[in-house]
Amino acid sequence: MAILFFINILFYIILYLSSKIKSETLNSKFVLNINGNSHKLNFYYITLFVGENKENQTYLIDTTSSITTSPCSLCYSCGDHVNEYFNIKSNSSIIKSSSYQCIKLQNNIENPLLNKNDDNCNFYQDFNDGIISGFYTNNLIRFEPITLKNNNQENEEEYISKNEIFELPLGCSIQETGGFQTRISDGILGLSNNKISFISMLYYLQLIKNNLFSLCFDEYGGYFSLGEIDTKYHISNISYVDLYSNNELYQLEINKFLIGSTEINNKYISIIDTSSTISFFPKDIFNLIMVGFFSECEDKKNECGKIKREEGYGICAEFNNLNEMHKAINYIWPSIKIEFNGYEFIWEPKNYYLNFSTDFKSMACLGFETDENIKDSIILGTNFMHGYDIIFDKEKNRIGFAEAECGRNMHKKLDLINNKIIVEKEKNKKYIDKILEEKKNEEIIQKQKEIQEKEYGKENEYNTTYKNNNNVVTNFYIYLLSFIIFIILFILFVINYINYNNYNSSFNNEKNKYKTPLIDDENEVKENNKYKSIGQMIEMVNDDNKNNG
To answer: Please, are residues 394 and 212 in contact by the beta-carbon 8 Å criterion?
Structure first.
């Protein structure tokens, strides 16, 4: 009994250590930097380092796509993007169409062109503005860490994700059509509510703890949390809304709009689409929203700006200077309240407007439009998400909203720039407008590049330290498990050896017990036969004597 108890204790120790190792794997938390903006670049993206050579690739964030892909060196019809195509020959392994992995990747994808006369695991996706096709590869991935500014401190706070290296199925685009050929970003990051999306693959490979992610967009950049919710910069509690359906799109039911005194009670299904920087409404909803907007500005025409439709920009307001524009956006323009099944979302003007100021005029445009192709649904683009950390909880099929400081690494710098522009505006308009253009574009982009280069330079040292520490922990568990297994085997050997000796001893005793009487009986029979034979001989002699006599 004591031995069995000891073996059970060792078994539970092994289970505990195994769960400990698994939990170490699942505790990885990633927070990535989001680059881009809603009015100049007109898209948001993240940077990944692909392959053994750590080739830079930029991926447009797309919550309506399930495929993560960028052009590779085998592409024969791709556009001119910010980086060179990643090298397929030295950096990845092509997934074959006959493999189990390919079956999983192509599950529930309707495409008659898949794997026709081809050994590769192909993909094909048709978007509104073009088509992307290619094949899947297993490739090494590294994340770009993020550096954020803490508003409570003068020094920058470094919030760096674990810079681990892992392998994921990535698309190698060999053909792009339409708008994909003219986009600056290299590829797309598929974040749809699909089992083969980027986040789901990280979760199923146990690289993140939960099957969720969050996106926090600002006018310039933001941050992207994977696997866990980063509440560090939230300024409100999280409110959750259940998804309208359990399909690949993130759909929410809207019950009501309210802009000023104008209330719209129609029910619509909305789609959160980060591939679009502006939002689109059906014509009837758009017209009612504009009625509410103009009603709020009716007595404040001068302060709301000169409102008119600008070709290529939509509904815009022109101002005499930037100071007037900022005042209108922050204090005059109305907010739009949207009710999602009991949760009231406040869409403030500073979040829905787009800044299209030029050297000649200060102009702010509404970040929403109407689309004749949209009848019964609403497209909520990234400007809808500005100022909120939006949680996409794929595991519980819901969306979370929390007000947050999404662009805290940029806000302070931009405020200083804007103040300087406003103060010096009257002195030299042309010079200050030039500062605006440079500061809001080139300097910000340069800052992002400096952060990237700085973290990239630290990567080797960081990876070496992390790998060494991780190897020490892993080796310790391996040695400990090996020692425990050796102890168990040794105990089992001793038990078997003792049982074997006891069995032999018992068997010999039983054998001797029955062997001795048997031998005695045989001797007695022989002795009796002996005496019986002698008696017979005597009788035979006596008979012979009588006959002779």
So the answer is: yes
Q: β-strands 314-319, 306-310: how paired?
A: antiparallel
Pair (320, 344) in one structural domain: yes
Pick from 28, 49, 35: nearest CA to 161: 28
Tell me the two tokens of residue 448.
């992002």
Give strand pairing partners of 258.
263, 337
Is the distance from CB of 196 to CB of 66 less than 8 angstroms?
yes
Residue 3 to residue 11: CA distance in whole angstroms: 12
- Same domain? For 249 and 227 the reply is no
Q: 383: domain CATH number?
A: 2.40.70.10
Say whether both 79 and 136 belong to one domain.
yes
Q: Which domain holds residue 221?
A: 2-235+427-480
CA atoms within 13 A on the CB side of 227: 19
Give whole-number Cα distances, 162 to 14, 83, 208, 265, in Å. 28, 24, 11, 46
Read off the pLDDT of residues 424-482 as tens digits, 9 standing for 90 and up.
334 444 444 544 555 556 666 666 666 666 655 555 554 555 455 555 556 677 777 87
Q: Is residue 421 situated within a structural domain?
A: no
CA 422 – CA 416 distance, rounded (Å): 10
pLDDT tens string 178-215: 888 888 889 999 999 988 899 999 998 888 889 999 99
Q: Are residues 265 and 295 in the same domain?
A: yes
SS (H, E, C) 220-238: EEEEEEECCCCCCCECCCC
State the Cα–Cα distance between residues 48 and 82, nearest whole angstrom. 13
Does residue 337 form part of some domain? yes
More confident residue, 429 or 53: 53
> Which of 65, 57, 53 is CA-nearest to residue 81?
57
Evaluate whether 211 touches 228 at the Cβ level (below 8 Å). Answer: no
pLDDT higher than threshold 60 for residue 523: no
The answer to whether the beta carbons of residues 229 and 214 sit under 8 Å apart is yes
Three-state SS across 380-418? ECHHHHCCEEEEEECCCCEEEEEEECCCHHHHHHHHHHH
Query: Any alpha helices (H) in 227-361, and if so which ranges?
Result: 283-297, 301-304, 322-327, 349-352
